[in-house]
Amino acid sequence: MSDPTHGRACIDFLERIEYMEIKAITTPLVLNEVSYKLLIAKAGELLGTDRFWKIHDELKDKKFIRTCYGIVEEFRDYVGTLCGLRVEDARIDDFNKSVDLGYKFGLVTTDSYHAAAMYRLGIKHIASNDSDFERVNFIEVWTP
Q1: pLDDT digit string (tens) for 7-43?
Q2: Residue 105: domain span
Q3: Whole-angstrom Cα distance, residue 93 to residue 34?
């Protein structure tokens, strides 16, 4: 959230979810994706590198990974405070639909899976800085 360009807007958005001014839906896949990025970013920060294979190799060390997991635990605890957030289960039908949507709209698999879950749930809006979702004709993208 320390991003100089979008940090404040993201914090404001999450606070609105926390105080139930906005109802939000996510999936365990999104929570996993964010957790993974936080873990890798923390490890890279501590190691002073952005080289994925170096980070991945160092995360095999139990002491080091425990240190890095602190940020993931903070995220988990924070998600629990978001009263306006509902977590929907991922389903095999989402996976099946994601293949079609990925091909149709030129999305990587993680994005097509998110789009498939949105399609199933009738969700038409997404808060994301990922411009790839703009190619999906049933999604309106809200950026910070």
Answers
A1: 788 889 888 998 899 889 999 999 999 999 999 999 9
A2: 92-142
A3: 23
121 shares a domain with 51:
no
Measured CA to CA, the distance from residue 97 to residue 77 in angstroms comes to 31
112, 54 contact by CB (below 8 A): no
Alpha carbon distance 88, 50 (integer Å): 32
Do residues 76 and 127 both lie within one domain? no
Q: Quick one: what percent of the chain has pLDDT higher than 70?
A: 97
Same domain, 57 and 99: no
pTM of the model: 0.85
Spatial separation of the C-alpha atoms in residues 12 and 142, rounded to whole Å: 14
Residue 38, CA distances (Å) to 28, 68, 71 in order:
15, 9, 7
How wide is the angle at C-alpha 81 spanned by C-alphas 77 and 85, nearest 5°? 115
Distance in Å from the first CA to the final CA of the chain: 12
**Other C-beta atoms lying within 10 Å of the C-beta of residue 27:** 20
